Amino acid sequence: MVHPEEADLAPHKLKFRSGKVIDLQCENNGPKRLKFRKGRSTDENANNKGDIGRRSFRRRKEDVQEKKDMQGLLNHVIEETASKLVETRKSRVKALVGAFESVISLQESKAPS
């Protein structure tokens, strides 16, 4: 179907100049507002939004504190074992290797529990 307006327009060849860029933008050149989706909740009570944030923050803080405590204990075990082994062994490297082996065996024994 040909519209009467298009009937008198004959096809013609378009010519483009190199190096000229035509930028077609919408009339609104202002900054765009970003829209973010709400995060998913891992807790069972999705209705209590305020409590969820507090609980998860406390859990994370407790987890971080537990990791720090565990690292401190492991460092203490390594230092004690290394100092004991240095007395019996002449090489510090051998003492450190023995200390790390004892820590690894402690971690492996705690893992299945």
Automatic annotation (TrEMBL):
The protein's matches in SMART domains, at most eight in alphabetical order, are given as: CaM_binding (SM01054)
Outline the extent of the Calmodulin-binding domain.
Answer: 10-105
List the GO molecular function terms.
calmodulin binding
Alphabetized InterPro entries for the sequence: CaM-bd_dom_pln (IPR012417)
Annotated region Disordered: the residues are 32-68
- Record-given protein name: Calmodulin-binding domain-containing protein
Q: Which organism is it from?
A: Acorus calamus (Sweet flag)
